[in-house]
Amino acid sequence: xxxxxxxxxxxxxxxxxxxxxxxxxxxxxxxxxxxxxxxxxxxxxxxxxxxxxxxxxxxxxxxxxxxxxxxxxxxxxxxxxxxxxxxxxxxxxxxxxxxxxxxxxxxxxxxxxxxxxxxxxxxxxxxxxxxxxxxxxxxxxxxxxxxxxxxxxxxxxxxxxxxxxxxxxxxxxxxxxxxxxxxxxxxxxxxxxxxxxxxxxxxxxxxxxxxxxxxxxxxxxxxxxxxxxxxxxxxxxxxxxxxxxxxxxxxxxxxxxxxxxxxxxxxxxxxxxxxxxxxxxxxxxxxxxxxxxxxxxxxxxxxxxxxxxxxxxxxxxxxxxxxxxxxxxxxxxxxxxxxxxxxxxxxxxxxxxxxxxxxxxxxxxxxxxxxxxxxxxxxxxxxxxxxxxxxxxxxxxxxxxxxxxxxxxxxxxxxxxxxxxxxxxxxxxxxxxxxxxxxxxxxxxxxx
Length: 448
Fold this sequence. Notes:
- The chain is of the alpha/beta class.
- The protein folds into two domains: 97 residues, Arc Repressor Mutant, subunit A (Orthogonal Bundle); 309 residues, pyruvate-formate lyase- activating enzyme.
- The protein is 38% helix and 19% strand.
- It has 15 helices and 19 strands.
- The chain has a nine-stranded mixed β-sheet with strand order 9-10-8-7-6-5-4-1-13, sandwiched between helices. A three-stranded antiparallel β-sheet has the order 14-15-16, covered by helices on one side.
- A hairpin with a 3-residue loop joins strand 9 and strand 10.
- The longest helix has 19 residues.
- The two termini are 17 Å apart.
């Protein structure tokens, strides 16, 4: 079957599988804060020696990027910084009290929003209080997201001195027309300047985020963007499909579907970008990610140590991920918990002395089994059953087997080279909750 035909066949709404079950299928009715605390304590008792991963959500941005699907709060008032940090630290101390000690932090990521909205001094205050008397573990993977337009040398140096050696810059596209449509501006010169600053300071891994399928995007513009990126040679690249979900993010109503590359046109953008990145020496890793062979993400992939959590792909694997801040999601292996989605509600819960857990899910035995298979597919492009592949999974995989996207040999399901572009579709074949309750409304973005 021709690639264009495959696209038309498989470009359906599909989850991104940062978790299983996916958030719309969490059983919130049988979940509460007490159960979350109990499962977290059990997991920590068993796994505390390996340390935890920590995600801190810093939601503030000075302007709205209209493509963005993240939880953000738009303001130019920097007076919001310290009050928000105070609440973050109160939440952290609640977890420290619950666990009975300050846990070893193996991985920490500052996400947003725009973390570099916060001053370097305020970020230092936050992180020093998180770490306590000790610096972050020397082996900890510390990273943050930076906007090329407002990340300063002071930001880079302050965070580097605290142990941060990884930074991710949101590029998306260099085409001025696209930047106007999505209200996101940075020039190649700005990106080169901040990249060189980070490298000269000693940052070990620099990531660029790129998006295909943005409004106003076309082949010539994307080709020029990828060429600029290849010239600057970041260590990692995330090359995402634009997720058009205006029913969730009102900012995306600033343009219509007529402005967005569709179908064959969008897939051609993906193919061109992927081809250029691989041609420039980047290795394809999992879904949407590329890395140089010298980067730790590629090394983890080669050694079958790649992991995926709510922060995305990582070379660190911990049983526990704690999410601090508005809308953040935590994971203790057998349970998920998400904080309130508005800054006001999040603050209110914490200041009243309770965790801001708004929703969650307790994983049962079947959830855990399916979760591991989907994680294997996402990180290793294959998974293996103890016995035969279940009949229902085999039935769902049949079209992909016929189209040479997937191969099944004995107990193993393996993603074939062509199938790597349709990884989300393969994972859907394992997603029992999705098949048991087909969505009646729009929940997910298109697979490609």
